[in-house]
Amino acid sequence: MELYSYPLKAKFNQPRPPPPKVLPATSTTTASYKNRIPCHPESFSMPWMPNSYYKAAALNPTLSPLTECFPGLPPTKIIPFISERPNGVFTRHTLDDWHRSNLTNYKESETTRHNAERLRADLTRTIKDVYQQAKRTQGESTKNLGERVNDIEYWKSELCIELDAMIRETNSLMDMQKRLERALADTEGPFQVAHKCLLNREKRMGIDLVNDDVEKQLVTEIKIIRSCRERLQQCLDTVNAQLMCNKEARQELEKDLADKQMGHHIDSKCYQLKNTSRGIHFFKGVERIDATVSVPETWARFTDNNIFRSQSARAASAKLRASTESLLMGTADEMWRQFSKVNDAFTSRITEIANAKSKIQTHLAKTRQEIFQLETKIQVIQKTIKDKETQLKVAQTRLDERTRRPNVELCRDAAQLRLVQEVNEINETLRNLYQCLRASEDMLQMLVRSKGVLEHDLVVKNNSLFIDQERCMGMRKSYPSTVQILGYV
Question: What stretch or stretches form a coiled coil here (predicted)?
Fold first, then answer.
């Protein structure tokens, strides 16, 4: 991987220039080395560039006279050339010149050695100081890195503790959320039961269609259930909002912890690096790059703020869980008490209807018995009337026959008087019998009407008893228990 802002490595896409056929002169080579810069350690980090190495070789080599190679020597010191004559030789130096040259070389050698020894001592002291300073600087950096690693470990442990507490609190609040949802769903059943009870009781007939205590308690139960549902829904919305706050705080903690783990890994790696470690390289100019975004104070304050935010969210969540638990207990107790009141009202009403039904059945039985007896008496009266009419026929026939007696035989004798009296008595008896028959028939109609009223009232009572006892109480037996209302199951 290549770093940005660094030159790319050279690629040998162009052929190397051919070397010169003639070697450069000594003076030219020496002059080329005078302008060269000494090698520095940082030069090793520079990429390999071909033009840096072929710069000297690219010069056109030329031959220069021998005098130009030693510009500092006087003309008398120039070495003469050997004569072209085979037998002739030029004189070069004298013996004094030779001794002076040796002495001069000795002094120059001593001076050079003395300067070299002093330079070596200075270099030894400088190298020792450089090593001590580098060791001290590297030790301080290593110490600072170690302290930094310890600080990161401390905040990591604090974040882990707070993150675990937040996860436990969030799980508890999620359980409470599920209980609220179940409790809210469980209130739908009692609400529908109460509503259906009211609808079923609308099917009562006649006089039983009254606004009794059962109906009042059912209306109250519907109001209480509706109020409990609204409070539970509001609490559920609050719990959902608190879960979002807990989730945000948890995400901040997890993000901060992930950054701390990455920073701890990097700083631990830097803390363990040594001069003999592998993977160390030159990165020229990296010290001039400042990519920091915080200082130790803001760095610690950032994590402390995240922990404080999480602690505040946890405290609010715990308080909300306590209030939710109290709300669940309160609503369950309130709904259960009203449920018991409605059941008691139903029981009382069913008892009243059952007693009324029993009394109606008793009166109906007596009425039927009386109707039967009255019908029997009517039949007896009708038979008596029939018998009296026959007797009247006999008496009237006798009188009619006696009217045919001739002359003086038409005597008002005792027989005649008795027959007339008998006819009058029978007529009076018949009038009384017919009056009794009419009275009996009227009474029979009244009894039949009373029987019809009692039978209709019995049907009404049976219908009301069936509605209250079978339909309403049958549904209310399936009402969820307090444990289900509280959401524990």
Answer: 364-405
- Rounded distance, CA 308 to CA 306, Å? 5
Collect all residues with Cβ–Cβ distance below 8 Å to 343 and sequence separation of at least 6. 473, 476
Q: Phi-psi category of 279—alpha, beta or left, where left has phi over 0 and alpha has psi -120 to 50?
A: left
Residue written as token pair 């002094």? 107
Exposure class string for 258-280: b at 16+ Cβ within 10 A, else e: eebeebbeebbeebebeeeeeee
Segment 369-425, tens digit of pLDDT: 999 999 999 999 999 999 999 999 999 898 888 888 888 888 888 988 998 999 999
Q: What is the dihedral of CA 474, 476, 477, 482, to 10 degrees?
A: 170
Q: What's the token pair of residue 452? A: 């019809």
Tokens at 289, concatenated: 């790059």
The CA distances from residue 394 to 387, 403, 422, 423, in Å, are 11, 14, 10, 9
pTM over cut 0.90: no
Tell me the HSE value of 348 on the side-chain side, using a 13 A CA sphere: 11
Cβ atoms of 336 and 481 closer than 8 Å: no
Report angle CA 483, 229, 194 to the nearest 5 degrees.
80
pLDDT tens digits, one per residue of 411-461: 888 988 998 999 999 999 999 999 999 999 999 999 999 999 999 999 999
- How many angstroms separate the CA atoms of 125 and 403, rounded? 191
Q: What does the buried/exposed string (b/e) look like for 428-441 if buried means 16 or more CB atoms within 10 Å of the residue's CB?
A: eebeebeeebeebe
At position 136, the amino acid (one-letter code) is R
CA distance 235 to 179: 11
